[in-house]
Amino acid sequence: MKCSLLICMLCIAALGSTQKQEQSHAGSLGEFTQAPIETVIVQIDQPFVVRSVTGIIRRDTGDEAPLAQALFEVRGPDDQKMIYRSITDDEGRFRIRHLRSGRYAFKATFAGFQSVVGTIIVSSKADKAKSIAIKMPLGV
To answer: What is the pLDDT of residues 17-27, one digit of tens each?
Structure first.
């Protein structure tokens, strides 16, 4: 009986810690738009260092076709909570103009695909030719 009680208590403790991790992850993305069905979020670890926030979103489905009408959002700079949004055109391109230098969090979202998040560093010292390229995997 004591063993069963101990196992139940360990299960409850493990479940509680899992919920905290999910809540803290959701809290860091809370200001961004959530897709209607969003189960998987892909994290890009390497930040994009660019002069301006322009780029392309493609399907990560082998054909790498442009993803039209995807939502691309950035939050920042740094600790500021301001959100800037853009919708990709028919060729998967997006642009957010007039962002000052700093570190921005980003999120790319499209129904039926896994959302992609990461960091953008806007710097006047970045290569002029650099842009942001994101591949969005199909949803799970």
So the answer is: 222 222 233 34
